[in-house]
Amino acid sequence: MHLSKHLEGYDKDIVEAVLGIAEVSKAISRGFITHQGKAESDNIYGEQQARMDVWADGLFIKELGESGLVRYLASEEQPEVMEFESDTDLGISIDPLDGSSLLSVNLTVGTIVGIQRGGVLKPGNEMVGAMYVIYGPLTVLVYALGNGVHEFVLNADGDFVLRRENLTIGSEKRLGQGAARNTYLLFHEEFISMLEADGYKIRFSGSFVADVHQILHKGGVFTYPGYRGSERGKLRLLFECAPMGYIVTQAGGAVSDGYVDLLTIQPQSISERAPVYIGGKREIELIMGLPK
Ligand code: AHG
Ligand code: MN
Ligand code: MN
Q1: How many CA atoms lie within 13 Å of 41's alpha carbon, on the beta-carbon side?
Q2: How many angstroms separate the alpha carbon of residue 116 from the centre of ligand 1?
Q3: Strand partners, 227
Q4: Ligand 2 center from residue 95 Cα (angstroms)
Q5: What is the percent of the chain where pLDDT is above 70?
Q6: pTM > 0.85
Q7: How many other C-beta atoms can be found within 10 angstroms of the C-beta atom of residue 79?
Q8: How much is the pLDDT for 57?
Q9: C-beta 47 within 6 A of ligand 1
Q10: Residue 21: what pLDDT?
Q11: How far is the CA of 89 from the centre of ligand 1 (A)?
């Protein structure tokens, strides 16, 4: 079944936005070969951008903003929320290319999208949906719009076709852990030790979207914790943690900053960071229950 058919029944403006994002992701999947290397610019986090970061960001701004599909657009690669003329009140937060430091070694990267109404600076549990695309051996799109989590694959004809419907998080013991061990906070160190003692196997590529995709399918937990030097972690609440957390929660998992359900956190700015624990309910309950 084609993605457009699967989306029947959702609000028309949301369907158009999701299909618009899907079209851009097809262009991105074809554009890696012609946009290699570094750009000359840094983003607002002081990270040097890849040419693909800048190019993909421009494609989304054109397709979603300038063509009127959404009213508000916040991008990890832009300093401010952008507002456009539009008949809808849709707000999109987007990480155009997550994991882009891995482009130079040709590992899987992806696009992460959160969908809101009336703005973008809202807690994750007010999202109307979220989606991501990973550019791996296959280009795969996963969406959740409040009615299950569904996966599509880009086929040889250039169409996204259904691959798996109603995904639920796996039950294997896998552990993706960011940050350096010598900077761990005590409760985090205890969490990791408990999982290791329980036989969890390490999985961490450096591409959040790909790492969480693996956890979603296989099970376990991904964490990029708060650490000594950055107690609110590294990953961005609006562009990375909340959309992926929404999807994993819809698939029967959970997401936390270690203290509360991450989807209840009201972002104060679009660039806000959050520690993240994302995966099975059991693992997320474990970290939330540890004394801090
Ligand atoms: P981005 O490429 O959008 O800047 O995000 C990179 C993020 C995320 O994908 C990954 O989990 C993390 O940074 C890796 O960070 P370390 O290099 O510190 O492990
Ligand atoms: Mn990212
Ligand atoms: Mn990025």
Answers
A1: 9
A2: 24
A3: 184, 230
A4: 6
A5: 100
A6: yes
A7: 11
A8: 97
A9: yes
A10: 98
A11: 30
